[in-house]
Amino acid sequence: MPRKRPTTLLLLPAAAAALTCAAAAEPVPEHPDFTGLWMTYSGGAQGRASGFGRPGADLPLTEEGRRRVEEYRQLAGPERLNSATFCASYGVPTMMSLPGSYPIEFIQKPDQLTIIFEVGDETRRIYIGGEQLPPEQRLPSRAGYSEGYWDGDTLVVTTTDLLDGQDQPAHPFSEQATIDERFSLEEDENGTSVLTYQATITDPVYYTEPVTIERKYEPYDGFIIPYSCQDEIWFELLDMRREQLEAGEPVDARMSDVYAVREGKE
After folding, report:
1. Domain annotation covers residue 18
2. How many domains is the chain partitioned into structurally?
3. 205 and 238 together in one domain
4. Rounded to whole angstroms, how far apart are CA atoms 60 and 211?
């Protein structure tokens, strides 16, 4: 018995046109989607990786800003204490401008952009659109409160309600600071997706004029690894050294001194 030949499906011109129209009708994303893991862009030079992206000597500091920088220099001591070593969170804008070799994750929804920095499992939330928490209900934090809206393909964000960045090396900002941020997505000449972050810090307490930074990221093929700890002991060490500084004593308190005080309270 002869084998039957397979049936070939032929589309009439009208049917083919209908399928073409259906494919063309697929919804096009209204805005760029930043969702994914990102790391420092390797395709070109960037500004200084720490603080606000420029050496402290070049920052337009007020007299109070210079005083704060000098105070922190003394508190940090000759060993140049690093707050991250003692689990202090980076806060905004540093967590955005200092990704280093650690990945940063974006999770985007229509009304919210969640950003997770691997270091310390630090998380910030940007609320997008008209539904926002009333100003009187916003609690100051190191990440502040971030309110965003779309300007074409650029996400524009205003961050306020920040806690004083007393431990930002040579780049302080006060509780009066406002950070205007912009997130955009494009491709470089090699077809690599590039997420650009720009931020302008306006702070009348520590700066005589706005300070601007820019960082770029590229996709990261990997995972975020748990990396968390507590930062209370870091601030206890700073307070201990500040007491020494104000008393005119050598600023030499150690973390072992903090632990000794903690053990004495138990």
Report:
1. no
2. 2
3. no
4. 8
